[in-house]
Amino acid sequence: MRFKTGLTVAIIIAISGSSCREKGGKELNQGEIHYAIEYSGNIGSIKDIMPKTLIVSFKDNKMLFDISAPIGNAGIYNLSNPEKEIFDTYLSFLSWRYYYAAKPGESPPGFDAMKGMDIKKTFKTKDICGFNCKAAEIRFPSEPDSIYEIWYTNEIDIKNPNAGNPFSEIDGVLMSFFFFMGDTKMFFLAETVYKKDIPDKTFERKEKYQRISKEEINKFMEKIMSQ
């Protein structure tokens, strides 16, 4: 990623220094990817309890993004199960347990700050966790002088791996990427890729969550990030 500010450059350096391990070979159709998370922007007073790791579970074109904190029962989960047309976003924070069920092809909640982004694939390549990765450059109308980079691989066997996140037009598994949620920027870098058996129930709709509207879950997400 390339940015204008010294803070974000420092974040890139810190992330780039992370170790990366690939366990179980490249022929993967199920397993887990563990990512380190770094933050910039307005994080509010909850910085110390913000999640430090993203875990993505995948199996047979189904994916679960798990960004949860070890304390406070706090987490955001993004579930994509195209076979059953489940594209859910779950929010857990203290006593709150809500979810929004998106329609196929609908942009997920929480990412209004990423609307209007322009994605341009490049010819750049590099190795991340033993996987050959390609780069794409991202630009936003609100930051015309800034260029962000994401890296993705086609060597993990998942069809439409980004159907449940803002990078749906990228046809590979994200290995280094970012999310903007309100004024908070989250940067992810794959550290470890595991080949392991993932139970089918992982990709079923979660119980004990109250279904709410997209507008409502957006408000709850903004409230958490601004604490």
Summarize the structure.
With 227 residues, the chain is mainly beta. 10% of the residues lie in helices and 47% in strands.
Task: Write the SSE topology.
Elements: H1 6-16, E1 21-23, E2 30-41, E3 53-59, E4 62-68, E5 75-81, E6 86-93, E7 96-102, E8 118-128, E9 131-140, E10 143-153, E11 173-181, E12 184-195, E13 210-211, H2 214-225
What does this structure look like?
With 227 residues, this protein is mainly β. It has a single domain, classed as Clam (outer membrane lipoprotein receptor (LolB), chain A), CATH 2.50.20. It is 10% helix and 47% strand. The protein has helices at 6-16, 214-225; strands at residues 21-23, 30-41, 53-59, 62-68, 75-81, 86-93, 96-102, 118-128, 131-140, 143-153, 173-181, 184-195, 210-211. Strands 1, 2, 3, 4, 5, 6, 7, 8, 9, 10, 11, 12 and 13 form a 13-stranded mixed β-sheet that branches. The longest helix is centred in the C-terminal third of the chain and has 12 residues, at 214-225. Residues 1-19 have low confidence and may be disordered.
